[in-house]
């Protein structure tokens, strides 16, 4: 089973002058081992209020693929020190239909110093008319060596950004230009489901099957 891409957004966009041929990217907070690249994800800005940014993440093209199995958009509301995510993910494991409901809350300290993430997951399985469900939760504390940032392209809603900027790590590059920079740790990893969410999902799945 591939973990789905659930992204802990630890920062909003800073000031950038946008032109028609530019691509705006968020530097996205993540922690722990992950598997799925962000290139399969499309992100749109839903709302910006003070230092909080709300994003909707979906598969590029709007349809699930082998790299992105989202059936419904993931909603994220985040700022420099907080993150809330809600998502629904459906898949099939050995012929059994499984639906996950995930809620993740992270308190982030100093951008890269520490993050405490609480994840609640519910798994519902059905096969041959028989249904079962189970829930679980997990709390994980990530230290600085576990935390890294990856660029995420914004495909819609850029006009909602505050022109004065906000706290965060941001890169803006011309379309087709050089890849944006990231932390040394991030360069060696792929981005996807953070470890705390992966643990909770795995526990819920094992309980439901």
UniProtKB/TrEMBL annotation:
Residues 1-19 form the signal peptide. It comes from Monascus purpureus (Red mold). Residues 165-186 are annotated as: Disordered. Residues 170-185 have a biased composition (Low complexity). Keywords: Signal. It comes from the Eukaryota. This is GPI anchored cell wall protein. The lineage of its organism: Eukaryota, Fungi, Dikarya, Ascomycota, Pezizomycotina.
